[in-house]
Amino acid sequence: MHYAKVQKKHAEKLRDALAKNNLLANNADVLHSDSYVLFPVTIATATIKKLIRQNGGMLIEKKGRAQGNAKSKINRNKEVAKGYDILGNIAIVETDNPSSRAAKRYSEEIMSSSKRITTVLAKAGPVSGRYRIRKLSYVAGKRTYVADMIENGCRFVFDVRKTFFSVRLSFERQRISALSKGKENVMVLFAGVGPFAVELAKKNPRSSVVAIELNKSAYEMMKKNILINKLKNVVPVWGDVGKVAKHYENFADRIIMPLPKDSHSFIAHAAGISKDKGNIHIYMFVKKDNPAREAMKKLRKELGDSGKLKLLKWRKVRDYSHSEIEVVLDLRLNKG
Predict the structure, then answer these.
(1) Could you tell me if 31 and 73 are in contact, meaning their C-beta atoms sit under 8 angstroms apart?
(2) Domains of the chain with bracketed CATH
(3) How many CB atoms lie within 10 A of CB 221?
(4) Structure confidence at residue 99 (pLDDT)
(5) Which of 138, 128, 329, 149 is closest to 229 using CA atoms?
(6) According to the model, what pLDDT value does residue 319 have?
(7) Separation CA 329–CA 138 (nearest Å)
């Protein structure tokens, strides 16, 4: 894994430069020592090395255990060595004891690495329920649950207790936005607070985007995010995909389905929404062995006679558990 290593006094400047160029890796933890911060980067090239150097840091490769001062004295404490996600002003940590002194110290380390991070919360349970949200507990800093963040040039504001938002899909949102060219009708199912819909609409102003979300809280936040980003080509829809789909028959040139737990069970609805030879991007949890084969088998079983799917490309998004991974499949639907 490659990291951008920088002294704490330059950490915010370097982090902003990496974020602006979409170089922060979301599948690894930010590390701290008494004097340095290490930001994981997505790629390591001479150009990236130069960018890091221009912002006060250096590119390093770290294998296995952390070397020298790269590992924080807080990270050495097993109680809090599980990493964290950054959602703008809020960092969400994984710790077994959020009220412990070690967790408080760890939180102070996180906030000291960036002036933007003013609140630290802790995961207080698994992602669960119909809306895939989790309980969170306050650890340190400003007592708020409203995240205000910039991702790929788009701003999002949302309550982290009431909706699901995965920073690990940042690259996917950028990738699919780049695939959408010209004037397209795009449908985002399970749209959440609108990250896929907003980014694609902003990068493709000639496209028309419809975003469906069942969670009323997330839907209201999505409407706010559409306004914040000054978009007029996104239509937010509050409702169940199974019930709303019939109003958009043969509408979409492109469909995005970012609900890995249940997306496959809605593929027939997606087929009804899609035009002939429409593109579908679907996220799924599958076993690590033969993931594409397992995913396609599930999809074809659910699709039935609604059309034929051609697999254009698939990629691993992240590890999900010891035996499962999350994948994304880029598909083309033939309705003939």
Answers:
(1) no
(2) 1-71 (3.30.70.2580), 73-144 (3.30.300.110), 167-334 (3.40.50.150)
(3) 25
(4) 78
(5) 149
(6) 85
(7) 37
- Structure-token pair, residue 22: 């979409």
3-state SS, the chain, equals CEEEEEEHHHHHHHHHHHHHCCCECCCCCCEECCCEEEEEECCCCHHHHHHHHHCCEEEEECCCCCCHHHCCCCCCCHHHCCCEEEECCEEEECCCCCCCHHHHHHHHHHHHCCCCCCEEEEECCCCECCCCECCEEEEEECCCCEEEEEECCEEEEEECCCCCCCHHHHHHHHHHHHHCCCCCEEEECCCCCCHHHHHHHHHCCCCEEEEEECCHHHHHHHHHHHHHCCCCCEEEEECCHHHHHHHHCCCEEEEEECCCCCHHHHHHHHHHHEEEEEEEEEEEEEECCCHHHHHHHHHHHHHCCCCEEEEEEEEEEEECCCCEEEEEEEEEEECC
Residues of the chain with pLDDT under 50: 64-81
Question: What is the rounded CA–CA span in Å between residue 335 and residue 277?
Answer: 7
Match 């979301």 to its residue by tokens: 26
* Chain centre to alpha carbon of residue 51: 24
Q: From CA 93, how far away is CA 334, in angstroms rounded? A: 44
Per residue in 123-180, pLDDT (tens digit) is 887 777 788 888 899 999 999 999 999 988 899 999 999 998 988 888 899 899 999 9
Asked if 261 and 321 touch (Cβ cutoff 8 Å), the reply is no
71: tokens are: 């590992």
Q: Evaluate whether 255 touches 274 at the Cβ level (below 8 Å).
A: yes
Range 256-289 burial, b when 16+ CB lie within 10 A, else e: bbbbbeebbebbbbbbbbbbeebbbbbbbbbeee
Contact 15, 149 (CB under 8 A): no
Buried b (16+ CB within 10 A) or exposed e, 148-184: bbebbebebebbbebbbbbbebbbbbbebbeebeeeb
